[in-house]
Design a protein that fits this description.
Elements lengths: L1 E5 L4 H12 L3 E6 L14 E4 L5 H10 L4 E4 L6 H6 L1 H21 L4 E7 L22 H20 L2 E7 L1 E3 L17 H6 L9 E4 L11 E2 L1 E3 H16 L5 E5 L5 E2 H12 L5 E4 L14 H7 L8 H14 L7
Helix pairs in contact: 1-7, 2-4, 4-5, 8-10
This protein binds uridine-5'-diphosphate-4-deoxy-4-fluoro-alpha-D-galactose (UFG).
Length: 329
């Protein structure tokens, strides 16, 4: 199959391209390199630099390449930024997807797998979260991702396109080679921030809130290795290629770890004391997010292999230790 990966120079995109290439698929990447990195572009994939909001650009890719399916990661994904600059999210995430879908329909490309998020649920009604639970996003990032799901649903009804929305919980870790990994600027995610301490880039890590209703008072999250996420995309493309109907799947390990447990595990993995400073809550953080991924296991045959937090953090550490400034020289 020839698969177009939009956002293939980003964190989860580059890991998915790597798994696709290893599986022998033909891969075409399109990325505007706004948050992606040219160094993360897999040399075995064909690369187009451009923006999905540019209809001519998207059309030209579909005209040059006979694409069987699209995997769509091209979006902004920072919850905090989405609160202060919501229209950026409506523009890139929603308008960008509208242009993409128009072009797919015009070129007869009818299968798309895309990054959705646990943020579509908002404050969970129960734990673990299942796909049929209430979706009430508490920020524009989650709202635009949920709207992307709906846009695909109705485009499917009208034009026969089929989609799989993958609702990720907390993506983390890095490729076993240590050559690609997480590199955001600014960094806001817990594990890379923790690892900046043993890397000598910060004195301590902040714990945002110690008065949540959890076992040690800090937030609980479901950390899922990026390579396991990547594998789910490949299975989702196969599912659609085999005639599967449009669908939505949670992707998580189904196990929650507190912020304190994550820091403690990073201390063990790195052998560094990693001082932590107890700080006020960060606005908009739910106390607990844990996925039920039973549906992805049953329907897609997904079987995440990196359930151990120690292993996840060790893989992230391998990347960050050797690339303290991400892809920057
Ligand atoms: N945290 C800290 N200190 C930090 C950074 C984070 O204590 O310096 C805490 C947060 O408060 C949270 C946990 O660590 O409780 C994880 O925070 P991240 O920022 O790493 O991840 P989030 O859970 O906020 O966000 C993730 C994805 C988002 C997605 C969201 C769904 O990164 O894309 O889950 O709620 F929207």
């Amino acid at each position: 199959m020839k698969i177009l990966v939009l956002g293939g120079a980003g964190y989860i995109g580059s890991h998915t391209v790597s798994e696709l290439v290893d599986a022998g698929e033909e891969v075409v990447i399109a990325d505007n390199l706004e948050t992606g990195h040219i160094e993360a572009v897999n040399p075995k994939a064909k690369f187009y630099e451009g923006d999905i909001r540019n209809r001519e650009f998207v059309d030209s890719v579909f005209e040059n390449e006979k694409i069987d399916a699209v995997i769509h990661f091209a979006a902004n994904s920072l919850v905090g930024e989405s609160m202060t600059n919501p229209l950026k999210y409506y523009d890139n995430n929603l308008y960008g997807t509208k242009v993409l879908l128009e072009s797919m329909v015009a070129h007869g490309v009818d299968k798309i797998v895309f990054s959705s998020t646990a943020a579509t649920y908002g404050e969970p009604e129960s734990i673990p979260i299942v796909e049929t639970d209430r979706t009430e996003p508490t920020n524009p990032y989650g709202e635009t991702k949920l709207s992307m799901e709906k846009m695909m649903k109705w485009t499917g009804v009208a034009h026969g396109l089929r989609y799989v929305a993958l609702r990720y919980f907390n993506a983390c870790g890095a490729h076993e080679s240590g050559e690609i990994g997480e590199a955001h600027s600014p960094e806001t995610h817990l594990i890379p921030l923790i690892l900046q301490v043993p890397n000598g880039q910060r004195e301590s890590v902040s714990i945002f809130g110690t008065d949540y209703d959890t076992k040690d008072g800090t937030c609980v999250r479901d950390y899922i290795h990026v390579t396991d996420l990547a594998q789910a995309h490949i299975l989702a493309v196969k599912y659609l290629a085999d005639g599967g109907e449009s669908n939505v799947f949670n992707l998580g390990n189904g196990v929650g770890f507190t912020v304190k447990e994550v820091i403690e595990t990073a201390r063990k993995v790195t052998g560094h004391p990693i001082p932590a400073v107890e700080s006020p809550r960060r606005g908009g953080d739910p106390a607990k997010l844990i996925a039920s991924s039973e549906k992805a296991r049953k329907v897609l045959g997904w079987n995440p292999e990196h359930a151990s937090l120690e292993e996840i953090i060790a893989s992230a550490w391998k990347w960050h230790k050797n690339h303290p400034n991400g892809y920057a020289k």
